[in-house]
């Protein structure tokens, strides 16, 4: 009984004051949340947040000097009679046939012009708008100036359109007065479908037990106590609860005083929007979880992705071709001049792949690079390895994220896979493979080979000349001697042996340099395909992780957390 008396004394006490700047900051946070998750989360989960932003922006742009209060109740609860009693005029139809109220009626205290745009937005037809302003009232109604009182249709009407209208209007008004009667105050529909849904709007909710005159005076406290228990179960602990009657002018005194306090505070609209934000944030809370460990994919996963891309792009085959091309070109530049032309009959390994490297030897015509390479197509195993690497990156990146963010991460990781083959081909084609055109030591060795070859040819020519003279019976010219060996013979044999010796010494050097060129080309190609993985896989994944972090921070701000 003490609790009921306390509620009756409090009537409709105001809740915690809402700072307009804080409210606008929270709405901006909801907007930032929606911007962050756009394209990443299912649209159906975001409908309440979009609706809130639209409604809140419109409501705040309309009259801040008016407080929209709705009387909501079931059939026969007497809300239309209560509406007329508060207005002290017969404005809303009251009758025996149910439902009586099919559309919303509005009564405005003060000039109607200031509330016209507001009522247009709410959707009350002009013929159902009334102004509570009369010279005969004097200042009797001045305390309610700024009040817009709505009489809503019955939410349990047999006509489904009435309930839809009630649901629409309940999302627009600033404060709701739930009207129940002694016969149906415990009705499951009003508690499960409506009152429990308003547990985050306690500051803008009032419950009245109407038609209290139908109860014996001794039964009123008992019914109020039972109704209070039901409200506590609905999560509406502390909501003001009043007993009213429309047949006695004194039966609405406390309710009218509560409305006067509400109008004077000018807080109802802010509290309603604050409650709407709380409701939306609670519905979105499961979309964010703990702070992500990082907004970047794991380094090990990125390396595995690069390795898979390298296999798909044919980097090992290209690196092998670079080594073979180096050996081929070095042999052509440092080999025995008389057999160099034979090597030109063998195609350059990089030419076969349409990969010219950085240039071509001066004794070979340069070729223009083509748009596509002839690198072997990836095998089924390589394609499978790439798919597994992409999956591993997305799963690792989304391991700390709540649903449905992992789906968004996976979708982002795979969103551009169709463009990867062409991007890899372009990356390989555009990479400077580092194959030298003609290093200085190639020219040096080539010059030495020419010298010893010319010496051998000179010795051979000398010997052939002496042989020809002897065949013709001519005097044999004296041949200079080097020790016991004739000079022509020394030149021929020495030139041949020197050429073989230069080739033997050069071969391991060429092999070492070719392997080094291969490693260098492999590193550059790996860096190039890593760039493809960064652009086409990791960057989209990172964008989702950043969006999650932004959405999480925005939702915390919308919830009022610092």
TrEMBL record:
Any one GO cellular component localisation term in the record: cytosol
Q: Name one GO biological process term.
A: ribosomal small subunit assembly
Q: Where is the G domain?
A: 69-210
Q: Where is this region: Disordered?
A: 350-373
Which keywords accompany this UniProt record?
Answer: Cell cycle, Cell division, Membrane, Transmembrane, Transmembrane helix
A GO MF term: ribosomal small subunit binding
Q: Which SUPFAM superfamilies does the UniProt record give?
A: P-loop containing nucleoside triphosphate hydrolases (SSF52540)
Keyword Repeat belongs to the record: no
Transmembrane residues, as ranges?
448-469, 489-510
Task: Name the domain of life.
Answer: Bacteria
Keyword Transmembrane set for record: yes
Q: What is this protein called?
A: GTP-binding protein EngB required for normal cell division
Q: Which organism is it from?
A: Micromonospora pallida
* Source organism phylogeny: Bacteria, Bacillati, Actinomycetota, Actinomycetes, Micromonosporales
